[in-house]
Specification:
With about 270 residues, this protein is an all-alpha fold. The chain has 13 helices and no strands.
């Protein structure tokens, strides 16, 4: 049998040619600029500096923590605390919050940005907890993120602080640090979160997001980092840093006077 002439041979479809011509691109993930030993040393120093860091949002139980984190969106922790001290004194459970009502909740949180929408969310959140969870805050991310006003970051904060789970709640401070110093580069909070979860040693995970938030809030600030106050200045690979000399590594049991003054100014 004779070989078929070129014009008789079946032609590849245009789609197949296009597919063959373009290589499949795999999603790439940005890598940390730091070795495992450097990451371990960074968090070791954070642990020495703040042995038992605590979130700055005041709360008395898992429910008030959840409400406080919801209210903290686009607001300072200090500002939220001023509004919620009186609120939580009269409504520290979903039932009490629901009985208070949206208008009354709004009166308590009027000084917080977007307070009308937040008051509505707090009431809807309380209703959902009573209806779907027996008035208890669930300890699963998927269940938390189904609640009104609760996103992934809020869920991660609650899971970490209320239930001791090893989560990484990426806020603006952590997003900035992850990229500025190259610790966990990423365009989105989810990318930075996943990067940090890959590199932070397990023994530091419980407090890791608190250390990073405090570092971003009081040292590696948005406008201009205070490198002279940085305990990891010698390890830091940021092109913005102004010194290679680390600050003295001493425990800080509480916020120092400078940090307290800054927090109060931010809340005004």
């Amino acid at each position: 049998m004779k070989n078929p002439k070129p014009q008789d041979r079946p032609k590849a479809s245009t789609a197949n040619k296009t597919a063959a011509a373009k290589p499949v691109r795999r999603a790439t993930r940005s890598r940390s600029l730091y070795s495992a030993a450097e990451v371990d040393e960074i968090f070791r120093r954070f642990q020495v500096q703040r042995p038992a860091p605590k979130g700055e949002l005041e709360h008395v139980n898992a429910f008030t923590l959840l409400v406080a984190v919801v209210l903290s969106a686009q607001a300072t922790d200090a500002g939220v605390n001023k509004a919620t001290r009186a609120l939580f004194a009269v409504a520290d459970t979903p039932d009490k919050m629901l009985a208070l009502g949206e208008d009354k909740v709004g009166e308590y949180i009027r000084t917080i940005g977007l307070w009308r929408n937040k008051a509505r969310n707090v009431i809807a959140l309380s209703e959902a907890l009573i209806r779907d969870h027996g008035g208890e805050v669930p300890d699963e991310r998927d269940l938390l993120t189904k609640l009104p006003g609760v996103g992934r970051k809020t869920a991660n904060v609650v899971l970490n602080m209320a239930f001791g789970q090893h989560t990484m709640a990426v806020d603006t401070h952590i997003l900035r640090i992850g990229n500025r110093i190259g610790l966990a580069p990423g365009k989105t909070p989810d990318q930075v979160e996943q990067g940090l979860l890959r590199i932070v040693p397990a023994q530091y995970m419980l407090h890791a997001h608190h250390w990073l938030i405090l570092h971003g809030r009081y040292v590696c600030k948005a406008r201009k980092p205070d490198c002279w106050r940085c305990v990891i200045a010698d390890i830091c690979k940021s092109p913005e840093k102004t010194t290679d000399e680390p600050a003295p590594l001493v425990p800080l049991d509480e916020l120092d006077p400078v940090e307290v003054a800054e927090a109060e100014m931010a809340a005004q």
